[in-house]
Design brief:
Structural class: alpha/beta
CATH architecture of the largest domain: Alpha-Beta Complex
Order of helices and strands: EHEHEHEEHEEEEEEEHHEHHHH
Shape: globular
Largest sheet: 9 strands, mixed
CATH superfamily of the largest domain: Spore Coat Polysaccharide Biosynthesis Protein SpsA, Chain A
Radius of gyration: 19 Å
Distance between the termini: 38 Å
Strand content: 15-25%
Number of strands: 13
Length: about 325
Amino acid sequence: MKLAIVILNWNGQQLLETFLPSVVDDSDGHSIYVIDNASTDTSVSFLETHFPKIHCIKLDSNFGYAAGYNKGLEQINADIFCLLNSDVEVTKNWLKPILNTFKTEINTVIIQPKILDYHQKNKFEYAGAGGGFIDQLGYPYCRGRIFETLEEDRGQYNDQKDIFWASGACLFIRAKTFKELRGFDSNFFSHMEEIDLCWRAKNRGLTVTYVGTSTVYHVGGASLKSSHPKKTFLNFRNSLFTLVKNSSKPLLVVLLLRLVLDGIAGLRFLLQAKPKHIIAIIKAHGSFYISLPYLLQFRNQHSNRKSHQQIPSIVWSYFVRNNKYFNKL
């Protein structure tokens, strides 16, 4: 089974300096690639000088996460792709349980390891934690992380479990599946494109799995901080994208409920004196409405949609019922 570990880079030389050594040391001889999104720093020359055995694929523009990976992976021949953020520290033997699962679980096409916080290594990290799920209105959450509440790792998720979505911070996928799904939706640019990818795989009856015996540590927010309004824009807009494309629920009802809840989120930002985030939500909805023709066309062309949601509303459960931890849902 041929594995390619693939890191997407944009002006991330400092991250490559910090985290590439652990990937090289613990890659078990598997090929490592860096897809460079037309960096303007010295990332490429740094790689060529200090890591000459790493394959560098140079793109001519910054295509973001989605299209960047789509274009780069076209040039890589492998059975399994490991899409790894440049701000991830891997651990010894992190690959073995993942590859063993691919060998024994034929229907499993996407896998995520346990993702812990690089700065607080006893806590789960926001992006993926112990495996991702989604509610009926398209809001994502994780085992180990619901909204801003992060659980301490006490071994409670040292298991193997089918999940709804795997984090793009460290996502393993069969190359055949990636190609059959036509990769990420480049309209997302970045953020939540992995949820859309997993949702499309699930709608085909394929399995997404969490393997908690493999651990990585993620810095998070290295390319875009959670406090940045652009991240708010991408998260709100792309969440709506995934709903229209993939949800089995009555679309008009779901969108009306989302409009109300997104409005409440805007009021919350108002109370927090964060006007730029309110504007980001408004822009997200504007961009979403402009994109509706494309999204509806995709929906009409892909009618095999299934229900995968675990709970009706994570917003209600978290903010009203005060359930802050996954085992309370």
